[in-house]
Amino acid sequence: MEPGRASRWPQVVAGAVSRVAGGEVVASFRTSQPLVALTVDDGPHPATTPALLDVLARAGAVATFFVIGEQARAHPALLPRIVAAGHELGNHLERDEPSVLLPAAVFEAQLAATHALLAAHAPVRWFRPGSGWFTPGMLRAGARLGYRCALGSPGLAVTDHRRPGGTAARLAARAGAGDVVVLHEGTPERAGVAALAEALLAGLAARGLRAASLSAVAAAAV
Known about the structure:
Largest sheet: 9 strands, mixed
Helix content: 25-40%
CATH topology: TIM Barrel
Number of strands: 11
CATH architecture: Alpha-Beta Barrel
Shape: globular
Strand content: 15-25%
Number of helices: 8
Structural class: alpha/beta
Distance between the termini: 35 Å
Order of helices and strands: EEEEHEHHEHEEHEHEHEH
């Protein structure tokens, strides 16, 4: 990718909503409330989502699930379960792939198709491009659907779930009020995400922090 054509979340200003050409990109929020935005990418999937929902329910925690369209269509019973449990849906397009490599028309078609799927179940306010890279055109396409772009706070995205205890301890120690944590589900190899989330929620609670949806943290922002 050419410099200046695409940006990724480490380049977004930490601790704030960043306004870049094309729209807004959220990597964290400024808030005095003890809230951390918990987000989960790449589901739903029967190998990960039900166990994750059980963990969240036991902890009284709420998350934003960034859903992949083809996953939701393959497992249609899981979206209603996510919504019924009080969680928020976000748009993660149709497939697990770098969104920035898609032609603009394909990106917009995928965004719109997944939006139609999710909006039948609940309001959808956020999108997250695959692999975290974005362009101004992608932000404008999201804005036309009423979306804000939400990435993750630097250092708080996890793709390796093989050592859930240690990873959770690291995340809980790093996270602060208004930060956005990114976990990943959606394949049997990521079944450890439930144990990771359970340990993370306990670690956050020990520091007086509570996991909430993106929209809840955004509403508490100053």
